[in-house]
Amino acid sequence: MISQAQATRLWAIARVELKLQDCEIRAVLAEYGITSTKFIPAVQYREIMNRLSQCAKTEF
User: Fold this and answer.
1) Which of 11, 33, 56, 60 is a good FRET partner for 47, with 20 to 30 A between their CA atoms?
2) Residue partners of 3: CB distance under 8 A and separation at least 6
3) pLDDT in tens, 47-57
4) pLDDT, tens digit, for every residue of 19-58?
5) Domain containing 33: what range?
6) How many Cα atoms occupy the beta-carbon half-sphere of 57 within 13 Å?
């Protein structure tokens, strides 16, 4: 699983840099079947970060 520091970093990047709302972040995590950042496998961390970035670029 990812470290607490990585989980904190994920939220900070998603909120501040990517300007995503919490519901959008949670929706991306749900795509991977993840209910909490505590349960993100380390091998999926980069993939999830990339998906968050894609989500931020998508305009609705």
Assistant:
1) 60
2) none
3) 999 999 999 99
4) 999 999 999 999 999 999 999 999 999 999 999 999 999 8
5) 4-57
6) 6
The residue behind tokens 């998603």 is 14
Q: Rounded CA gap, 15 and 31, in Å?
A: 18
Number of domains the chain is built from: 1
The C-alpha atoms of residue 35 and residue 57 are separated, in whole angstroms, by 23
Report CA 51 to chain centroid distance, whole Å.
7
Token pair of 33 as six digits:
């079947």
Please name the amino acid found at residue 24: E
Structure tokens at 13: 């990047």
